[in-house]
Write the structure tokens for this entry.
Amino acid sequence: METEIKEAQGKIVSAENPGITAPADWQPVIIGILCNWCSYAGSDLTGTSRIQYPPNIRIIRVPCSSRVDPWFIIKSLQTAADGVLISGCHPGDCHYISGNYYARRRFLVTKKLLNFIGYHENRVQFSWVSAAEGPKFAKVVAKVTEDIKKLGPLHRYKKENF
Amino acid sequence: MDYSKQIQEIASKLFAENKIDYFVGYKQNSFDDSQVPFLITDPAEIPKLVFTDKSVFNLANYLKPDHTKRKRVGLVVKGCDSRALNLMLTESQVKRENVYIIGICCEGVLNDKGEKAQNCVECVMPDPVVYDERIGTPTGKREYTVNADIRELATKALEERADYFESIFANCIRCNACRHSCPLCYCAKCCLDQETSTLYHGANTSSGAMHALMTWSLHLAGRCVDCRNCEKACPSHLPLHLLHKQNESVIYENFQQHLAGMEKDNRGAFYKYSLSDPDDFIL
Amino acid sequence: MARVGVFVCFCGANIAGVVDVPAVVQEAKKIKEVKIAIEYKYMCSDPGQQMIRDAIVQNRLTSVVVAACSPRMHEKTFRKALSDAGMNPYLLEIANIREHSSWVHQKDKKAATEKASDLIRMAIAKSIANEQLHEISVPVTKRALVIGGGIAGIQAALDIADARIPVTLVEKSPSIGGRMAQLDETFPTLDCSQCILTPKMVDVAAHPYIELIPYSEVIELNGYVGNYKAKIKKKASYVDFSTCTGCGTCTQKCPVKVPNEFNMNIDKRKAIYTPFPQAVPNKPVIDAEHCTMLLKGKCGICAKFCEKGSINFKMVDEVIEREIGAVVIATGYDLWDPKPYEEYGVGRYKDIITSLEFERMVSASGPTNGVPVRPSDGKVPKNVVFIKCIGSRDEAKGIEYCSKICCMYTAKHAILLHHKVHDSHAYIFYMDIRAAGKGYEEFVKRAQVETAATYLRGRVSKIYKKGDKLMVRGEDAQIGQVVEVEADLVVLATAVIAPKDNPALARLLGVSYDKYGYMSEAHPKLRPVETAKAGIFLAGCTQAPKDIPDTVAQASACAAKVCGLFAGDTMKKDPMISTINNEFCSGCQNCVTVCPYQAIVTEEIPLGYGSKELRTVAKINEGVCQGCGSCVAVCRSMAISLAGFTDPQIINEIVAI
């Protein structure tokens, strides 16, 4: 089921439409939506610890992962994002007690639905990063960036394509 | 399956005892062999009521308008229809004391080609889950099977699926008939129509339609009962059941086999959680 | 038309060393809504803040973007700068170009600069959708409820009451005192536990600001911080405390004998009893489950002999209500039942006891008059084996944590044994010796030196009977040998566990608890006495096993928090909470279901303007809402918006990239 991405003449090919190519120095844009109490704090710790990670991610802060409405993901994919990362507190540690449990359910259904209509499953990824996991955040961003680089630019349903 | 007579008797009784203001059932169409929803206030119309395997439409949809919501209504529901009604009761859209529910133990309805409809072949609950009177012999809950079209699409390559769905979304004309016909789409002002919100994406484009249909199916996830009102209403013949059945199968397999509207006061899957919900897709 | 001011900070070289700040400022100026964009070395400093204040006034700004360190650092600082300039402080957005750019992309300055520009553009877009928010004032009832009358509850109650704040102290058993009343002497000072505890107990009873409600339980708590309503069930004691003199005749005359839970069931008490001689209040209660009169309608000897006529068999449970502003949970701990240690013969051999049973035995007013005895034949033991870590630190027994106090009290037991039985010998099987407090290591050394106790590093594999002795087989890892010790008495240091009623109480109060039943603190390091629910605090072992000094410190910390909460006549609350737009609400109440704080209720409003018919909509209690946004994401009608993180704000951020 996985599409093989071929580097055609130095150009990166899009996973969902092989007809779309991008120059080899193309940089993906990843939108990250992080919960304030765990993941955003964890990403701050990554900064304080000076751990380096790829610069493609743009972070948006929300109070809780349960604030993330699936249509933020859809909107991101329809605008600048080639990939989306949502991160929250580990289950059981939610600052608001149960927010991430509800979020977890929405995340799974949204991810599967997006894959069903033709987005590669690595386009939207999720993580649990606690306020103490500075190194983990860097690893997660590096992994997601690498995955999206391999998938190439996202081109379907971009708002400018009427 | 022909319960026309029983339904007419019950409707007569209800009007005679002044238990209802409206009765919602099915009426034979005058120009072809299909049936249409029929709202009556006058007992003289009762003889037109029918119920057979062509009684396809989910009549719970008629409890959405204010006038039926607040008056006393007698309603005919099949298994799937009653599940939608159950969810409407749970979500406080209808007061239980306002509805007299005639539940039919359904043997399946026919589609336009005269064959048993796909959602009836895959039906999990033909018996009414909530009723005041029950007609027919209950046969019990059936085993859940993943929709045949979903299974087939899952085997296709990513690009093929992407092309297929893009063609579906490109054909959506944003008429909103799907929302109007769905009993569980009762919001006074749909989020997709709120011009002041940044969600508004009214344009008749494939990205606009993708956005609208994805949001709509996610709002129905864990609540859809697969009555196929939406598909029957869609003028572009979009296979809307694909989105709903996809969500239903993910929810069934991962969230304690949740199915919409099976029990009283059981809300949709997104309004509860389990400590053992799957987590392994999360880094 | 939005007028945005952008202020980019160099942060010394922290940002400027990687991000090209002047270039970023030039990029910002290109955005048409930006009326002024300036850079400065340290925006958070006084001159920096002055620049912001001046720019706001001179340019009539409608929102402000500060591009600097994380909002978690200086959001408050810059909000104050805005309010000092007469601007609503919530019209500020912060672009994190330090922790999220300059510090993490040090090798790619071009990318870091581009990212900084992007982040600023996102913050500008978000700030345009910011609304003016005002801190909410909620009234506050200045009374505290302390649940639990052990040393934690006692200390918290005294500290709060000393600040002239009324306290209602509820205790489940007939007397306050808790576990500390069961102890003989306490480490590391060997202070007599009752001697240091009872003055505090008397202070509680006498304090003009403390309402002591013994033999009672909290059965309901509604409301939100500053405005709670508690329902307390006063269990029927069948004794009128106002007339009872505490003479004790009734207890003497009662014919019923019941296992005495205060003495760990070693001896018996009567059906009408005070738990221990120094009980506060020192009035007896009747145990309804064992009193012949209450069960069968016969006897009543206590009433016949009571000179004051204080006994009333017709008494019933009474439910009272209190309005309170804050709650301190101080429910203490239980001890684990070592039944699963079948290989030790627990339950089979009488001479295997728990540490608290040993403690009661060596207590002067205990069931054996202060001398440890073998339960099997009443003889005084000579060789006593103490085994530590029974249940604790053991995944197989489901208790992964260390119970913290056992190493210290076992050393104490070795010393007490030595004092009571001069020719005794203590053998202590241990895995580690955890003596981290002030004077603790010295105390353990004292135990080892003074008593010549034998510390054996190794686990015990089996205990079996040999004649009337117990053979304890374990490992002495330091010599790498299996050893067997002939014991007269074996004392197990069983794990400290959360009280078994903690989960039910937690659910009643609306706080979380962990897998062991301990109440959950808001943050393990920085907020150890608060729970995630505002106004509810934790003191003592209810939160995690700890010794008396830490318990008392935590209790006083709770008192400080409560005093802070009650410092004004009203409380200020963060306004970033959710509100419902009735126009779009369909009354489905899914939001009510998901709110973690039960902050959402329903209300009936007219169907339309001037209509007599009503419809149901949801209503958010602004005092309780903590602003998580769970309700926003489940509202299909988009009827709820979360101030500070509204849909327009977040979508603006996404679209600006």
